Amino acid sequence: MHHLSVARRTPSRRGSMHDVPKELMDTIHELEKLFSVDINKMHVIVNRFVSELEKGLSKEGGSIPMNPTWVIGYPTGDECGTYLALDMGGTNLRVCEVELPEEKGQFEIYQSKYRLPDEIKVGDSDQLWDYMAECVKQFLIANHEGQDLSELPEMPLGFTFSYPCTQNAIDHGILQRWTKGFDIDNVEGRDVVPLFEDALQRKGVPVKIVALINDTTGTLIASAYTDDTTRVGCIFGTGCNAAYMEEAGCIPKLEHMKLDPKLPIAINCEWGAFDNEKLVLPRTTYDAHIDKTSPRPGQQLFEKMVAGLYLGEIFRLVLVDLHNNADVHLFQGQDIFGLKLEFSLDASFLSDIENDPWENLMEVQSIFENKLKISTTEPERKLIRRLAELIGTRAARLSACGVAAICKKKGYTSCHVGADGSVFNKYPHFQERQAQALREIFNWGPEIKNDPIQVVPAEDGSGVGAALIAALTLNRIKQGIHAGVNVKRKNSLIPPTHPCW
């Protein structure tokens, strides 16, 4: 990895930076140049993003998969009943029981979280599915005290599986590739629904998977359920992604199915794969290192610059590089063993740094001493704080490019974008920085008091959204819209014009 060059120029002595030595100040300026994304660069990225979204819908396809989900249309608000939802995220497993009453836009949710052990993420297939089935079983036992599981009626479940899948039906999904640090053999290229259902059957759990969804699609549907101005759903958390509703007539790769051109189909973009060709994103040597050493080099390059899984690692790599650069004099004479452990810092570490309210950054000092056993000077802490700001701001501005691209492609000039995920909800100033980037991209001046396109906190997509999609799916079955029998899965919700119908 290349060292940062140290610029030899007079630093601008501004505000709280007045006591920062010249070497560190020069380094801060170099970092600012390296991680800043200006308005011209954002325009280039957005334009490329739009073309890549369109390419993903074409027959030829592109880096961004643009997967049709077979979630047809928005909820009406009339959905009701009790549904299970299972959310398999990058860090946790969440089981929910969701009650949709007759009142429009209302819901009640009961839920439990289970940690996904690291060894399961790289274990074997049966180990993964059996663990998940056991979690569902324990949830039902706890939530239905005094009842024997064998006496419970079969419950419909919406399965939030937030990994790129090819779906020919709503209850079917072939895993394209693992993301978020998962690397389990013998799952890629297979339908994950029967794999999980077999485990549920082995455990004696009375559950039927009626819908396989992505958390981003769930976010779109759940947000639209309570806010009818929602047009896009996004996740900015461990990973990043977006979903929106596309008309079948604008999806060339579905032309052979002869669908109604006006039929609205939710598209799971899987936009973490944007710019895998390395044409427009402002990648640094640190981004290149993360990609090269990842389980899937050359894939998910956009995600590796904006998702929570990688922000702490980018930060760590920069600090190690600066410490090794004799011109910078960072953490001089100290053993930085703790800082050398790969992925030892997560996005919450950066959040804590940015949340330090003190001028002399005493909380940053405590964080470094307690977690890394590194003593810091006040000037060093100011560099640390600025670096965290730069990495967090870059993530927010790049994510805004994706939001802007979908809105430009669809011609949305005013709408809400429902967003969820730990980075969006918890990372300091992420929402404000993202909103500022959208103002710059769309050139909204100060005379516009309310931004026409706003990214707002979403409803619970992986829980409520999954339950709603299960309800929408069962309603379609009742209406006879599903039709047909798939040779692999009975009662699959294959569109009536599908060749298997």
Automatic annotation (TrEMBL):
EC number of this enzyme: 2.7.1.-
Pfam families recorded: Hexokinase_1, Hexokinase_2
GO-annotated biological processes: glucose metabolic process; glycolytic process; intracellular glucose homeostasis; mannose metabolic process
GO molecular function: ATP binding; D-glucose binding; fructokinase activity; glucokinase activity; mannokinase activity
Keyword annotations from UniProtKB, A to Z: ATP-binding, Glycolysis, Kinase, Nucleotide-binding, Transferase
InterPro entries: ATPase_NBD, Hexokinase, Hexokinase_BS, Hexokinase_C, Hexokinase_N
Amino acid composition bias (Basic residues), ranges on this chain: 1-12
Catalytic activity: a D-hexose + ATP = a D-hexose 6-phosphate + ADP + H(+); D-fructose + ATP = D-fructose 6-phosphate + ADP + H(+)
Broadest EC class assigned to this enzyme: transferase
Pathway: Carbohydrate metabolism; hexose metabolism; Carbohydrate degradation; glycolysis; D-glyceraldehyde 3-phosphate and glycerone phosphate from D-glucose: step 1/4
Annotated stretches, region: Disordered: 1-21
Hexokinase C-terminal domain residues: 231-472
Hexokinase N-terminal domain: residues covered: 28-225
Family affiliation: Belongs to the hexokinase family.
Protein name according to UniProt: Phosphotransferase
